[in-house]
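Example 4.3 (complexes with small molecules)
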Amino acid sequence: MNCNELSADVWNYCVQLDKEHQEQNNGKQMKFKDLQSAVKNYNDLSSKNIQMVFLKYFHSRKAMWLSIKAKHERSSTVKMPYKPKKFFNTMWDYQAIRIDYERGEIKLAKRQLGIGGYGKHQPPVRCYAKTLPQNIVEIELLYRRGLKLAIKYKEPDLIQSVGENVASIDLGEIHSITSIDNNGNAIIITGRKLRSIKRLRDKELGKLRSKRSKCTKGSNQYKKYSRAIYNLKYETDKKILDAVHKITKLYLDYCLNNQIGTVYYGDVDSATRSTKGRVKAHNGQKLSEWSHGLITLQLENKLNRYGIQMVKVKEYYTSQKCPLCGNLNKPTSRNYSCTCGYTQHRDIVGAINILNDNAGTSVERYESKMYLRIA
Ligand SMILES: [Zn+2]
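Answer. The structure with zinc ion bound is encoded below.
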């Protein structure tokens, strides 16, 4: 499909027309309607596709004027789009899309035969997907190592009756999420999969970088390695995001099953910051590199849709304090043990303390424990 080349043609035509108009009319730009009707049926793309490119152009023009008006620091350097594009993402809005949910099929309106739009419609392009979201607003054809469709959709409002229970989360490296609620229901979601993706990524990246460092900068071989690095990052980022989605989905299910309305979680930002300087560089990096930020962000997105609140709290010795007697002990292994005889899973101690410190509960141990991993 050469849709994206055709879309680029439309964009370039917009730029050209507007420029000519400005030259002939003392710098005045073409009006919305004039430009719209001028590009209509410009090429073989469907009129919807052309319209979307035109709207993009118009909006970017408007954004430029707003930016100049706002007198930003660099507003004097803001220019009209002028570079001719070779490719431009083709977009279909909801009117140009037909979806068959049962078959997982998307039909994208295709160009019309015969310039002027009077010709016959060509049969639509059919694409298939395993799962399709409801309320699709727009689909974009983009190039990321092959042609891909990006689907924009509206999230349905899902807020039901919110539970009254409270829970807390201890974010960790070995166990991504450890949580317990006021009834003692604990859940541990392991992050082993995430860690292995990352380890492999770092190993491969290291290899590629050292190979690249032996090449002359700018040489073909150098570029080849740069491309390989980019592709590796792109692929692993996708895998990491997918894993985080699965982890946070498991936690959402736990919240819904246990009627949880509020979740307290430790402020990891301050934890990572305070380790800098104190701990050896590679240790600090390990913590900050860890995708806690990504996990909390996706948790917030998912839980908030169900009306569940995420509350960020400060952690004070949450991994050391004994939930039974309050003494401080430094856990030396995965198991926590206190001089008073209390023993517990280390991450669960952290979660219990976050809960008791913030929700006014006095949970000492778990009643039930689920141990989950993602496939
Ligand atoms: Zn104790």
